[in-house]
Amino acid sequence: MPSLRHSYTVTVPEEPAAFPVDKPDLRRKSPSLSRSKLVSTFMGLIINQAKNKSPQGLVGLRNLGNTCFMNSILQCLSNTPELRDYCLRNVHRTDLNNSNCTANAALMEEFAKLTQSLWTSVNNEAISPSDFRSQIQRFAPKFVGCNQQDAQEFLRFLLDGLHNEVNRVTVRPKVYVEDFDHLSDDEKGKRMWNMYLEREDSKVVDLFVGQLKSSVTCTVCGFRSTVFDPFWDLSIPVAQKSSGEVTLRDCLRLFTKEDVLDGEERPTCNRCKTRRKCTKRFSVQKFPQILVLHLKRFSDSNLRTSKLSTYVNFPLKELDLREFASESSERAVYNLYAVSNHSGNALGGHYTAYCKNPALGEWHSYNDSRVSPVSSSQVRSSNAYVLFYELAPPTHSKYQTCRL
């Protein structure tokens, strides 16, 4: 598994296209051209332009043999506006850091090429991601072959690989152990975040990485210690109810609820200098631009893997997460733009994706080679596995939030 680097209202243009379409320059036409012919010619150009307009972002990916997990995540990332633009404008090439790359030297380039193909294709013919697949297999050999894989695990490896290649830090400084216990939690969190950026700083980090706060309190002396860790996604348990609907907020509350550390789990209290019964809880210190929530549907027990198919109701927009934030955390309202789905059971299944096209503002289903429109009501299902949320603009009204 990767290291710790691993665990907008969309403005719709007048024409639903990712790139501006060149308008015909009629000034070069012959001055003898009649007005009716001029209008007819103009309309003809517009019609032809519409007929030939690229289905930008609405192109499928061929299944190369149990690669639906990969296709699902790639479509979700392709519909991440800032990451898409980063690739389309070739900005990634200015960030390529060859000194940090070995076996994964071409991963970012192949990912960018694939994203460009999905958004510049002149027809709706599915694209083969074979070149990209070769590179991700070089970076992460566990994906070699045609075995079924976990989409969330693939996402972690992929983001880690992309980050490594475009890390703005060419030489990572040595890690020094510093005592921050005398600092306030807010100041300690900032220091830890800056130390992280001194080693890990990329466009991928800019988008996907947040900071999690873990607080451990001794039940004997009351001493509280805090640890701040970066995260690429949050793996949250699926809540269980005897009656009533399970919501995403229920799952997040379960993730952030206070746990008791006792028995063999007792940590050493820094004040008591011995192992003590403690309580522990999580909160989000810094929210990322893109928040990835992984619903933990798979679990191992008695040497068997099982899957929870519980329907979890999650909002498509106005998700207010301030309840789960540290006191000093900033705005935390998100809009959903992509979902990676898993249908089937723990022994086998199929991955698809629902993505909101950032140019059209409409939801589509991505099932390997097949792409089709879906209504927003279809996006919620018991197959939802990985949720992709984007931070809402700062002008967002605090009175227009969804409380589940």
UniProtKB/TrEMBL annotation:
UniProt-listed Gene3D superfamilies: Cysteine proteinases
InterPro entries: Papain-like_cys_pep_sf (IPR038765), Peptidase_C19_UCH (IPR001394), Ub_carboxyl-term_hydrolase (IPR050185), USP (IPR028889), USP_CS (IPR018200)
GO MF annotation terms: cysteine-type deubiquitinase activity; metal ion binding
Enzyme Commission number(s): 3.4.19.12
GO cellular component assignments: perinuclear region of cytoplasm
GO biological process entries: protein deubiquitination; proteolysis; rhythmic process
Catalytic reaction(s) noted: Thiol-dependent hydrolysis of ester, thioester, amide, peptide and isopeptide bonds formed by the C-terminal Gly of ubiquitin (a 76-residue protein attached to proteins as an intracellular targeting signal)
Sequence ranges assigned to domain USP in this UniProt record: 59-392
EC primary class: hydrolase
Localization terms from the record: Cytoplasm, Perinuclear region
Protein name, UniProt field: Ubiquitin carboxyl-terminal hydrolase
Protein source organism: Zoarces viviparus (Viviparous eelpout)
Classification of source organism: Eukaryota, Metazoa, Chordata, Craniata, Vertebrata
